[in-house]
Amino acid sequence: MGRFRLSIFSFETLRLKAVPLEWWLSLALGSALLLGVEGAARYLMRPLGEYAWAYWDDQAMVKFEWFRAVASAGSPPEVLVIGDSTGARDFCPKAFTETSGGLTAFNLAWPANFPFALEATTLPFLRDNTLKAPRYVVLFQSPAAFVDSADVERFEAGILSSPIARLARGDVWPVDRVALARIYRCRHLLVRYWLRGEPPITSPTRDGFMPERGTGRTGQGNDKKPVEVPLSKRRLDVVRKFAQVARERGTQLIVVVPPVRVRPVPSLFQKYRRWLENTAGSEMFRVIDCAELPELGEADYKDFIHLNERGAERFSAILGRVFADGIATCSPASGPAQGS
User: Fold this and answer.
1) pLDDT value at 69 more than 70
2) Within the chain, what is the greatest distance between any pair of CA atoms?
3) In the chain, at which residue ranges do the beta strands (DSSP E only) sit?
4) At residue 97, does pLDDT exceed 80?
5) Looking at residues 186-212, what average pLDDT do you find?
6) Which residues pair with 80 in a beta bridge?
7) What ranges do the domains of the chain cover?
8) Alpha carbons 245 and 47: distance in angstroms, whole number
9) Phi, psi torsion values for 79, nearest 5 degrees
């Protein structure tokens, strides 16, 4: 048999050479620089608040963070409108205030802020005991927002994927804690504050109202009826959550069935109205049914479900008169005809 030479490894063979001192010094210097830059970034970001960097849209950030600031200061508007584009496009705070007896109002609604997105972006404001609750919270949602459809989920995804929505769900990433990662998203606010000496967040234009321009004709553009499918219990339960928080905070939740252009009113609207009417009493919220307002005509609509600017001003004035005539004492389910 052949002879095999064995190699025996000793601990001396495996011993690593000592790390040079200059390596340790470089690592310490790099860490100190990184911590220093992170500290400087936190200092620069401090005037913007904790959440300005986390929104899906700059205009949305201004709307939501302005409301956070005034509610934190103890002076929120008396009427806070929340919800999707049927609120953002259809509610004009100025026109409402003029007919409501001077009630201050702010439009916090945003397009595609459908129930799941609304729960992540807006419900935390009402749950936060450090923020003073408004007197009334007025919810606008298209009945189509309460359907589990691919279109609804697609539009809602843009908001649900934002950091502010993730944080509301408790889905915190390590990078969310790093100020350096936030600076680029807020660069225009930092320039405004540190270089121009201006407030980083100012009152939104027209108190958050986002009007539609022009007039659409029936059958054109976005003039399609919602899909005639069952309402989603999971999405409707979000309304219950808002009602519960409203009771806990001592504010009044009012749900508005938005105006719709076509007649007869689509069955999805009718299902939504029936659910609201059957639920309002037990959950202690109120309903204002505006689906078939005779005061609004063809020229007031932009499309099937949205008013144009003129129509929104007219509609908001009607809603203001409902409040002026005593919304706080009306029955749980009521409409403009009963309140005006």
Assistant:
1) yes
2) 111
3) 79-83, 105-107, 136-140, 252-257, 286-289, 333-334
4) yes
5) 88
6) 106, 137
7) 58-173+203-339
8) 30
9) -120, 120
Distance CA 156, CA 115 (A): 9
Token match 């011993």: residue?
A: 15
Nearest to 178 by CA among 41, 58, 47: 41
- The CA distance from 63 to 222, in Å, is 26
Report residue 160 as tokens: 């649900």
Residue 53 identity (one-letter amino acid): W
Task: Please state the pTM of the whole predicted model.
Answer: 0.84
For residue 35, what is the enclosing H or E element?
helix 21-45
Q: How far is CA 238 from CA 198, 215, 243, 292, in A?
A: 38, 33, 9, 25
Identify the pLDDT of residue 329: 39
| 124, pLDDT greater than 90 | yes
List Cβ neighbours of 59 (8 Å cut-off, separation of 6 or more).
204
CA 243 to chain centre: 17
Beta bridge partners of 257: 289
63, 207 Cβ separation under 8 angstroms: no
- For the CA atoms of 40, 46, 48, 49, the dihedral, rounded to the nearest 10 degrees, stands at 140
Q: The tokens of 247 are what? A: 């009771």
Q: Strand ranges (DSSP E) for 170-328? A: 252-257, 286-289
* Beta-strand relationship, 79-83 and 105-107: parallel
CATH (one of 3.40.50.1000, 3.40.50.1110, 3.10.105.10, 3.30.230.10) for 58-173+203-339: 3.40.50.1110
Alpha helices in 139-285 (DSSP H): 150-160, 163-168, 187-190, 233-249, 267-283
pLDDT value for 12: 52
At 332, which helix (H) or strand (E)?
Answer: none
**Residue burial 51-76, b: 16+ Cβ < 10 Å; e: rest:** bbbbbbeeebbbbbbbbbbbbeeeeb
% of the chain exceeding 90 in pLDDT: 64
